[in-house]
Amino acid sequence: SYIIWLTRCAGLGFLRRPLSIVAALSTALCFAFLNDSFAGTFSEKVTRTVRQFSPHLAAKMRPPFTPVIRGRRSAKRSIYICGQPRSAFVAAASLVSFFLWYVSCGLLTLSWALAIGLLATIIHASSRTPNLKARLNTFREEFRHVWRNHNVL
User: Helix (H) and strand (E) counts for the chain?
Assistant: First the structure.
């Protein structure tokens, strides 16, 4: 949820420049590629779409074959996006995002928005009570105990 909060702060800082909004969206997409399920789903959807136009290119976009040893896949399975390792894909997308930030003259605004977003995140995380659920359960049990004793009288 903090990533969404930081992205929202960055997005609000760039309403005055349309190219900065595109840069913020591309940065959010770079963050989303770090999620395993999103990366796999994105790669599969893009490959299916490309297959409609060029089956040969779609075959190249498939991840390399990983052998299955003794009926099991390896526990440390690397993730591929459009046939490329995720680290290479995220690095390329990050370079595109940085270029968009640079062209839109939004690097200073981005740094201020991220600083404010990180500060708000740190303040929120430090002021949050760690065991709120446990405290509410204790209060509920104490209330039930007092209510039972009150009904006995």
Answer: 7, 2
**Tens digits of residue pLDDT in 55-108:** 888 888 887 776 666 655 555 667 888 888 889 989 999 999 889 888 887 778
The amino acid occupying position 41 is T
Which residue type does 109 have? Answer: T
Contact by Cβ (8 Å): 106, 20: yes
In sequence order, what are the beta bridge partners of 69? 72
Three-state secondary-structure class, residue 1: coil
pTM of the model: 0.59
Taking CA atoms, 43 is separated from 24, 28, 56, 85, in Å, by 21, 17, 16, 11
Q: In angstroms, what CA-CA distances link 53 with 56, 57, 59, 62?
A: 9, 9, 12, 15
Give pLDDT tens digits for 32-60: 998 888 988 898 899 999 999 988 888 88
